[in-house]
């Protein structure tokens, strides 16, 4: 084993292993990464996986590094995002072979992020954790905005509630990812007999412990709100059928019957499967009931903005979260729409691929909500909102948290029932709670419905895939974490500085090719 590892690192022998070996190793190491995340929580794979990639790039040319990184990215996304298969095949009415092919194409495209990352690493920078880790973080960050973003499978999520998440309130998910990748690379360097890397590794771990002792926020001296989160468990294939709409309302109304009188009742994303214009008598009756019992009612509902539609000359539909009832009001319009989970990119061209989704109102025609919307007003408190996929965007949640007392996210993860997707989604909510020092309540259609404290710990959660009511208390928090104040800029700036220094002090020839070594 030592001889094999020496060959991989090119420490004892001048001749390297054929490039097929690092390609296969990278494909494997990318494929195992997602098992570091929920629901498996094998966190040590988040160290092993990038460590193998780092070792595989040793002394490789930039061209080889591109394909090694691409191989890693393909394995990462094909396995890590395979939960898309359920929405495409089961609910998209696409045959199994074509569904797998679509996921493979997605993996090929998303894998290019890692391919470009590793090409830049070997083309322009010296081989050191202090250039590999900054590039990794910058490319994770790029996944939050390139082509609207797909911010999934970040290294830092593996350490939610573990060891080094103390950095989250200071530097956010990218700060945690930076530390994870430095530690992963340090393992390789130590095995390569560069034992001095044990010192910065120990300092990073000690720093995580010290950061966990800091407190940036505190609870307000007020009675926590009594909340009830309603999980209707409506099957996705029935949810938008016209003949099932009234049944859906009956299910949620019956589950809520015993909850009137509590401070806040929350229904999930699009739990009302009709536009507000089609269901005004029901909404009026719910408001009367909420006012009479002293409850605030928050629900997900598709919203047809009639005034804006008239001004624009075409219908403006939004995925929204609406608040009404006792001393409560507000409307939040979703800003980030998820491809293939909420709408179909190039839907006209893809209508033959996903025929069943074309008639689903949740999948097409929604507009994006404007930035910097006001929080929902709930009994003199400010409730920051995130709908479904939005909670995966750290900076978007940070902006909402900056002006809120607590946070709510609603979702319909029935698209991905039986997969790791809903659990990974919940893990992101935990990280957002810790980053911003705010309690987070999460109401979903099928699960995972949960109450999460300001430290990112799950206080309560409802069983999945069954109707449920989750009751708990929701404290209002005050103060701001360092991350809430400064966003991702400290980590991004530090990463950029390390890369500039690495480029300035790089060896004369960084891209080592086989020809130059002969």
Question: How are the SSEs placed, and which strands pair?
Answer:
Blueprint: H1 2-9, H2 20-32, H3 45-56, H4 62-80, H5 84-90, H6 96-124, H7 129-142, H8 168-191, H9 198-212, E1 218-219, E2 225-231, H10 236-239, H11 245-256, E3 264-266, H12 280-293, E4 296-304, H13 306-312, E5 317-325, E6 328-333, H14 347-350, E7 376-378, E8 381-387, H15 394-401, E9 406-411, H16 421-436, E10 440-444, E11 450-452, E12 458-461, E13 468-474, E14 477-478, H17 482-486, H18 489-504, H19 514-517
Parallel strand pairs: 2-3, 3-4, 8-9, 9-10
Antiparallel strand pairs: 1-14, 2-13, 4-5, 5-6, 6-7, 7-8, 10-11, 11-12
Helix pairs in contact: 2-3, 2-4, 3-8, 4-6, 5-6, 6-7, 7-8, 7-18, 8-9, 8-16
Question: Can you describe this structure?
Answer:
Helices cover 45% and strands 14% of the residues. It has 518 residues and is an alpha/beta fold. The longest helix has 29 residues, at 96-124. The chain is globular, with a radius of gyration of 24 Å. The model is unreliable at 357-363 and 514-518 (pLDDT under 50).
In short:
By secondary structure, this protein is of the alpha/beta class. It has helices at 2-9, 20-32, 45-56, 62-80, 84-90, 96-124, 129-142, 168-191, 198-212, 236-239, 245-256, 280-293, 306-312, 347-350, 394-401, 421-436, 482-486, 489-504, 514-517, and strands at 218-219, 225-231, 264-266, 296-304, 317-325, 328-333, 376-378, 381-387, 406-411, 440-444, 450-452, 458-461, 468-474, 477-478. The two termini are 27 Å apart.
